[in-house]
Amino acid sequence: MTTDPLPRQLARTRHFTLGAPTHPGITADGAAVLFLRSRGGTDPLACLWALDTATGRERLIADPAALGASVGIAAYSTDATGRLAAFALDGTLWLADTADGTVRAVPVPGPPQDPRLDPTGRRIAYVSGGALRVAGADGTGDRALAEPEAEDVGYGLAEYVAAGEMHRTRGYWWSPDGTALLVARVDNRTVTRWFLADPTDPGQPPRVIRYPLAGTANAEVTLWLLGLDGGRTEVRWDRASFEYLTAAGWDDHGPYAAVQSRDQRTVRTLAIRANGDTLVLAERADPRWVELIPGLPVRTAGGALVDTADDGDTRHLTVDGEPVTPAGLQLRAVLGTEGETVLFTASEEPTETHLWTYEPGSGVRRLSSGPGVHGGVERGGTLVLTTGGRATVLREGRPPLALTSYTEAPVVTTRPELLRLGPRELRANLFLPTGHRPGGTPLPVLLDPYGGPAMQKATTGGAWHEQVSQWFADQGFAVLVADGRGTPGRGPRWDKTIYGDKAGPALEDQIEALHEAARLRPELLDLDRVGIRGWSYGGFLAALAVLRRPDVFHAASAGAAPTDQRLYDTHWQERFLGHPDEHPEHYDSGSLITEAPKLSRPLLLIQGLDDDNVFPVHALRLSSALLAAGRPHEVLPLRGTGHRPTDEAVVEHLLLHELEFLRRSLGR
Q1: pLDDT tens digits along 67-122
Q2: Are 462 and 481 in contact, with CB atoms under 8 Å apart?
Q3: Residue 106's closest CA among 140, 69, 73?
Q4: Dihedral sign, Cα of residue 331, residue 334, residue 335, residue 339
Q5: Nearest to 13 by CA among 655, 657, 652
Q6: How far is the C-alpha of 317 from the C-alpha of 358, rounded, in Å?
Q7: What is the chain's Cα-based Rg?
Q8: N or C: which end of the chain has fewer CB within 10 A?
Q9: Are 629 and 597 contacting, i.e. CB atoms less than 8 angstroms apart?
Q10: Cα(466)–Cα(415) distance, rounded to whole angstroms?
Q11: Could you tell me if 290 and 265 are in contact, meaning their C-beta atoms sit under 8 angstroms apart?
């Protein structure tokens, strides 16, 4: 058992992810489960393993250290059977036979990205230098199927907004027979160029990043059918009206794609014909925006289109256009289909996410039980159920098997009290110091939200951020984590109450949660000493709190806060705020920079200098505006740090620095 304090343990374990089994995949016959896992709770080198579902025995398939690599395996792909697995390591392409355990390098001319086996296992496609290439599984016959025609053009990888905002992380898809591919071509030449330099090393040139700012040009994305025989056909749709490619795939019924309008109010699902023509299979529309669900659209073996539809307060799963889930069950993601069965996650209660199946004739059935955030995969009669960093293998007629986890046990034991606060029944977790007893002096309060549309924090999932909230509580705070309007899991009406204003409703809900918690626990919470901390959108919310409501909030620690809404990307910002040329007031009302003269409370701005999501310009412009207004504040720049700190020293000491700031600012 480690005796490290939590900040150091978080750093050493990478937020308790090291040693956990991840990326489970199942062979077609259900006889083996493939997964990634490092050898220990502080070991960063993830290996490829296989579990025999009959015996429960785990076998090591590929060890990066034994292959001479300095990094772990981040992802792998398999053929249709699941026997062969391809992955990239340190610029080398590898192929593993998961049945006999052999692993061999596949010689290719350049460093591979996103290698994927064709379903038959005969060939491997990969991206290198912007080109989509294909080689035989034995390394012979390597050739480019598509090469970039100019700088800032590439084939086979997802563009910035697709990977970050649309759940589409892929840029090419094999045909089932392995003779052709559906490939995205991305032309970034009209996208805004930004330059990200290291101010601590002015001798190094800056990184050039193509970043589509709200209201500016997106990458031009087209689709192509590429045959191994050299054939090349462009897929045609109304790209002037539907410039976003949100999803694509190729199944036994042919290639397909989903496209979305720039205003995000319409999504069409298209069948793609061999000549490149497209046929509209379905269309969804919404006066605010059409929510994109991970894993959709997809088709069953019989060709039924699996999609989603919003109806009032419920986000339904649909099959062939008909809702198949009941009112109140909120669809979260579709994880796959087998035959006519659909595997998906959904929530009846927003603090929990469960694994479900739908089958024609029998309807929906919940597979997971107990509180938590559950997920999984199912194939060949084998189910892998995942929750809280654990994975259990279930096969009918056999006892459950657990994939071994080597994660460290946290040094902090969380004790959240789950609350429903106010007329909106805001879900919240209240953390108190370990061993706290009623009576005595009320505690200073620390709000610790995210509070935005990308994630929830008030769940029963036991995520790492609960350890952080409990750690702050153990330093003498009452820590309140509340999810307000716009956070996921409560249905489409709840989601879309923030349209046009990502600031006001979120801040109102944090204040309501605070006051309602104080009403329920008046002896616990000292409302004269209230701090707030957050990261990314949570950082924006923290800074907003002390700017707009200094009567409620007395100090804020704001990390990676997007301070100017016009300096964020197209697909994310325009979804909630519209196009800035059409709705400038939506962007102005959410700007922290224009509110800088209001600051009267202590504010700590934390910014990674290598952040290519929320660029350093956000923190620097707010700091400049605060200085110009004569408003004292603190800025903590983090060298070599992206949107999320990963360096162990930074992760450890950042929390300690925040603690010292909050204690000093709240008079503790």
Answers
A1: 999 999 999 999 999 999 999 999 999 999 999 999 999 999 999 999 999 999 99
A2: no
A3: 140
A4: positive
A5: 652
A6: 9
A7: 25
A8: N
A9: yes
A10: 9
A11: yes
How far is 20 from 39, CA to CA, in rounded Å?
Answer: 9
Categorize the per-residue pLDDT at 437 as very low, low, confident or very high, splitting at 50, 70 and 90.
Answer: confident
How far, CA to CA in Å, does 482 sit from each of 530, 642, 667?
A: 14, 26, 24
Q: What are phi and psi of 619, to 5 degrees?
A: -70, -40
CB 290 within 8 A of CB 281: no
Q: What is the pLDDT of residues 593-641, one digit of tens each?
A: 999 999 999 999 999 999 999 999 999 999 999 999 999 999 999 999 9
The helix (run of H) or strand (run of E) holding residue 63 is: none
**Res 227 pLDDT > 70:** yes
Q: Measured between alpha carbons, how far apart are the two ends of the chain, in Å? A: 31
**What type of residue is 405?**
S
Question: Domain map of the chain by residue range?
Answer: 149-286, 417-666
Phi, psi of 578 (to 5 degrees): 75, 180
Report how far apart, in Å, the C-alpha atoms of 319 and of each of 284, 297, 302, 316 are.
14, 10, 11, 10
What architecture (CATH level 2) is domain 417-666?
A: 3-Layer(aba) Sandwich (3.40)
3-state class of 588 per DSSP?
helix
Q: Is 264 helix (H, G, I), strand (E, B) or coil?
A: coil
CB 37, CB 19: distance < 8 Å: yes
How would you label 380-396 residue by residue, b for 16+ Cβ within 10 Å and e otherwise? bebbbbbbbbbbebbbe
The first and second tokens of residue 366, run together, are 């919940």
- Place 668 in a pLDDT band, splitting at 50, 70 and 90: low
Please, what's the b/e burial string for 163-185 (b: 16 or more CB within 10 A of its CB; e: otherwise)? Answer: eebbbbebbbbbbeebebbbbbb
Residue 443 pLDDT > 60: yes
* pLDDT above 80 for 326: yes
Per the CB < 8 A criterion, the answer to whether 476 and 444 are in contact is yes
Q: Which residue has the tokens 């009567």?
A: 551
C-alpha to C-alpha distance for 509 and 421, rounded to whole angstroms: 10
Strand 603-608 relative to strand 555-559: parallel, antiparallel, unpaired? parallel
- Distance CA(488)–CA(465), nearest Å, equals 17
Helix 648-666, helix 6-13: angle, nearest 10 = 150
Alpha helices by DSSP H, listed for 532-632, are 537-548, 570-577, 584-589, 617-628
Q: pLDDT digits over 269-278, tens only?
A: 999 999 999 9
The whole-model pTM stands at 0.96
**Residue 92 corresponds to which tokens in the numbers above?**
């080398």
Number of other residues whose CB lies within 10 A of the CB of residue 589:
17
DSSP secondary structure letter of residue 566? G
Q: Spell out a b/e string for 35-60, using b for 16 or more CB atoms within 10 Å of the CB, else e.
A: bbbbeebbbbbbbbbbbebeeeebee
Contacts 24+ apart (CB under 8 A), 18-21: 18/42, 18/43, 18/44, 18/406, 18/407, 19/43, 19/405, 19/406, 19/407, 19/408, 20/389, 20/390, 20/405, 20/406, 20/407, 21/49, 21/391, 21/403, 21/404, 21/405
Beta bridge partners of 133: 126, 144
- Tally of residues, the chain: 668
Instruction: Give me the phi and psi of 315, to 5 degrees please.
Output: -100, 110
Two tokens at 581?
């040329």
